[in-house]
Structure formats: C-alpha cells, structure tokens
Design goal:
This protein is mainly alpha-helical and 485 residues long. The chain has one domain (5-173, 244-484). It is built from 21 helices and no strands. It has helices at residues 5-18, 35-38, 44-55, 69-75, 79-82, 86-95, 119-122, 127-163, 166-182, 189-210, 214-259, 261-264, 275-301, 313-318, 338-343, 348-357, 380-383, 389-429, 431-436, 443-459, 461-484. Helix 8 (127-163) runs parallel beside helix 18 (389-429) and helix 11 (214-259) runs parallel beside helix 13 (275-301). It is elongated, with a radius of gyration of 30 Å. It starts with a helix and ends with a helix.
Length: 485
C-alpha cells in the first residue's frame, strides 16, 4: 500500500484539478477583497464566530491558562494555536490574516447559489415555479456547504500539520528530560551505562588483542569516546541542536511549497517573509480558488475572470439601493467587483443584487421592454435565473468530489507529519542511550546506526512531504493547463 500511495495521491489531485477544466485561469482570486472593508450588510464577525466553533482546530496549547476566549476569537481559525506558542504562533497569525487566508476571508454562508424571484421579470408564474426554484437552490447549497466545509477544514489541517511543531514545542521538555536522565548527579543511570559499556568494550578489546587486531581495538576505543562525549555534548546543547535542525528542515520544506506560488497562484500578494508560511498560503489559496471559488463564480456570473466582474454604470443606476444601510452606499460604485458586491450582502440587499445582476435584456427575454448593459458578464442573466437551479446543483456536486480528494490527500500527509513528529520527540529523548551503545563494538554500532537512520528519516518527514505536496500540486496544475491548451 505504501508503494502505491504516491500514485493514488497524484490521481486524486488530478481528479480535483480536472473538474476545474471548464473554468478560465484565475487572475487574482474570487472573494479576495478584504471582507472587513467591503461588507455591505450583515455582521460578518458574528457569522465568522459561529463558524469558528467548527473550524478552530484544537492543539495542546488549550492546556495553557493564558489562552483566553478573547484571544482565540481574535486569532481566527488558528486561535488555539496562536496564543502562547511562540514563533510558530506568530506564523499562524500571519497566515490567518484575511488577505492571506482567502478561504477565511468571507463567512462560508456568503458563498451561496441564489436566484431572483421567479415573478420578478416574468410576471405571473405558477406557484410551483417558486417552490421548484427554492428547493433547487436549497439542495445546491446543502451540497455546496459540504464542499466548502471539507475544503476549508482540509486547508486548515494542512496549515496545522506543517505548523504544529511538536518537536520545537517539546524541545525544552526533551532537553530537561535528557539532562535529568543522563547528567543528573543524583541519577545512577549514567554510571550504570558507563560501567556496562566499558565492561563489554574491555571484553571485546581483550578478545581482539589475543587475535592480534590492535587497530580494531583502537578504532573501538575512539568510537566509544566519541559516543560518551556525544552524550554529554548533546545533553548540554540539546535545545539549540534540535531547534536549529528543525528550523532547517521547515525552511527547506517551505521553499518548495513557496515555489508553486508563482506557478499556481502567481498574482496573490502574500506579505510573508517566512518560506513555509508563504508556501502554505500559496497552497491554500490555490486549493480554495480551484475547488470552491472559481466553480461558484462561473455558475453565478458566467466567468471567474475578475477583470470582467465589474458593476456597469447601467446596473448601478437601475439597482434598488434602498435595501442597503446608509453607511454602505458610498462603497457601491460603478466598476466595483460584483463578486464582492454579492458576497458583501445578506437579506434584502442580496435580493437587490440578484435582481439587477440577473435582470434579462430583450435579446435574452422577449417580454422585457428595456435593455440593461451587463458589460463583460452577461452570464449573470443565466446564473441568477430561477430556471437555472439545476445547473447550481450540478456545480455543487462537481465541487464535492475534488473536495473529498483534497481532504484525503491532506489527511494522509497531515496525519503522517503529526504522528512522525510525536515519534520523533520520543526518539530524541533516548538519543543519549543510542550514543552509549557506541561503546558496545559491532552489535552496538549496528543498533546505533539503525537508530540514527530512523531519527534522520523522521526529522526529514516534513521536508519530504513539503516537496511531495508541492510536486503533486505542480503536476496536477500542469496537467490542467496542458488539457486547457
């Protein structure tokens, strides 16, 4: 199974990106304008607070008494990690900013399939038409809610997997444990190990000398001295040594993850200096835009090219602005992004937006007496049409499979990283014991060699999966671009 894992994962990502083939390449990202600046109606903070109860992923820092409810709320989806967790917390706080974590920018409830009232432009219609349209969009939004929840949670798990630095968090504990076990004068373990090792080394040396192998004896003595010296050196410098090596592997993994940003989400500006943070933001933006934002935009507006999603002067003039709060009217101007306009509204204001964006012209509906200029997004006449709810359901279904595929990928990668880091912390605690085994010729050397190979392997897990995840994303994106021409 382990040998087939890379092929299975690549296949899952190919499925995910293949479902986005009908969508044009994203230029900046649907829904990327800051919600705090562009919210027009409703309380997005309350909406996010409710959703945050589902998406705050707990960590061991919940045991920290300093973790307050206010701090968790302020820190967003990673609140339980960003309080009292040092440098890793600072990195998570940077990632959680709406301009970086576009998957956290708007509440999930703002990404909905919608339509104007069936009798708005068609006059009298059967009552069944109202029910059919309402039920259709209700089904579409239920399915889409699953896709949104799965995708957002998967992205957050990905971030936490690469940032839940169990090893770094346990460095002080490990170093104190090592010092207490192997260098504490009141602890008898070190003398016992030294006596045992020296006894076995003496027996080995006598045996080799009797066979005339003095060089072998000298080599054994040097290795034993190296091992004993290593015990005390590591015990005295464990915190610095582990920290430096961990930061090296994290930075290298981040460089590979960050390398995909210019290839998959090149115009997203992330003002983050840390390589692994920047790489995680790029991967998260790519996944959210591909799985959720672009399919939704195409279904509702007819295009995911934000340069075409501009509110026209005609739409602005004919839109009913009475439903908007007075303080929001200044933000509504010709030329603003209509995806932002829709995402920024709730209630009656959303109805007003749906009415004007979906308003048909004469070429589309003969009974209409007056044309309206929809600019470069005439697809809104179809997207908001109450007869188009079946397409909304199809789009929602097509986002569910890639969302599940992405979740499987992140589940495999994230779980592996978290488990391996926990095992690594345990291995580091007994590292001096492995150094002591160097005093035992041949058998001890073999055991120590296996231990250090295993230790290096666990240390490199995050690095390997960083490279792996970036390569899978690049391969999947290359496949998509090749098919799209």
């Amino acid at each position: 199974m382990a040998k087939r894992l890379p092929l299975v994962t690549i296949a899952l990502l190919l499925i995910m990106f293949t479902f986005s083939l009908p969508m044009p390449a994203a230029l900046a990202g649907i829904g990327d304008q800051p919600a705090k600046d562009w919210n027009l109606q409703g309380d997005i903070e309350s909406e996010k607070a409710i959703e945050g109860q589902m998406f705050n992923i707990a960590s061991i820092t919940f045991l920290n008494p300093a973790t307050t409810a206010a701090a968790v709320t302020a820190a967003g989806p990673f609140g339980l990690l960003t309080v009292g967790a040092g440098a890793a917390a600072a990195g998570l706080a940077e990632i959680a900013k709406p301009e970086n974590a576009i998957w956290e920018n708007w509440p999930l409830g703002r990404y909905v399939f919608y339509h104007y009232a069936p009798d708005k432009y068609l006059g009298m219609v059967p009552t069944a038409q109202h029910a059919t349209s309402a039920i259709g969009d209700m089904i579409a939004n239920l399915i889409f809610s699953l896709s949104k929840s799965i995708t957002r949670t998967s992205i957050n798990v990905m971030v936490l997997a690469f940032h839940t630095d169990i090893v770094s968090g346990m460095i002080p504990w490990v170093s104190r444990g090592v010092a207490d076990i192997f260098t504490n004068p009141q602890n008898d373990l070190t003398p016992v190990l030294l006596i045992l090792g020296m006894s076995l080394l003496l027996i080995y040396s006598v045996f080799k000398l009797l066979r005339g192998q003095a060089v072998s004896v000298l080599g054994s003595l040097l290795i034993a001295l190296l091992g004993v010296g290593g015990v005390f050196f590591f015990s005295a410098n464990a915190e610095k040594l582990i920290g430096d090596f961990t930061r090296f592997t994290d930075s290298t993994a981040g460089l590979f993850l960050g390398a995909i940003s210019s290839y998959t989400a090149q115009s997203q500006n992330t003002n983050i200096s840390n390589p692994i943070d920047r790489g995680l933001v790029a991967a998260g933006q790519t996944a959210w835009d591909t799985i959720i934002a672009r399919p939704w935009a195409v279904a509702m507006f007819g295009t995911a090219d934000e340069s075409k999603l501009k509110l026209t002067q005609d739409e602005y003039n004919k839109m009913d602005k009475s439903s908007f709060p007075a303080e929001s009217l200044a933000k509504i101007q010709p030329g603003m992004r209509i995806d932002t306009l829709f995402l920024g509204c709730g209630g009656d204001a959303r109805d007003a937006v749906a009415d004007i964006l979906g308003r048909p012209n004469k070429r589309y509906l003969l009974v209409v007496r007056e044309d309206i200029d929809h600019g470069l997004h005439p697809g809104t006449m179809i997207g908001f049409n109450p007869a188009n709810t079946l397409n909304h359901i199809e789009t929602a279904l097509l986002t569910l499979l890639p969302a599940i595929a992405f979740a499987i990928l992140i589940g495999l990668v994230g779980l592996s990283i978290i488990v391996c880091q926990a095992v690594l912390a345990a291995l580091l605690l007994v590292l001096p014991l492995a150094l002591f085994t160097l005093m035992i010729p041949e058998t001890g050397w073999t055991l120590a060699s296996r231990y250090f190979r295993t230790l290096i392997g666990f240390f490199a897990v995050k690095l390997i999966y960083g490279v792996y995840l970036s390569l899978v994303l690049v391969i999947a994106t290359s496949f998509t671009k090749a098919v799209m021409g």
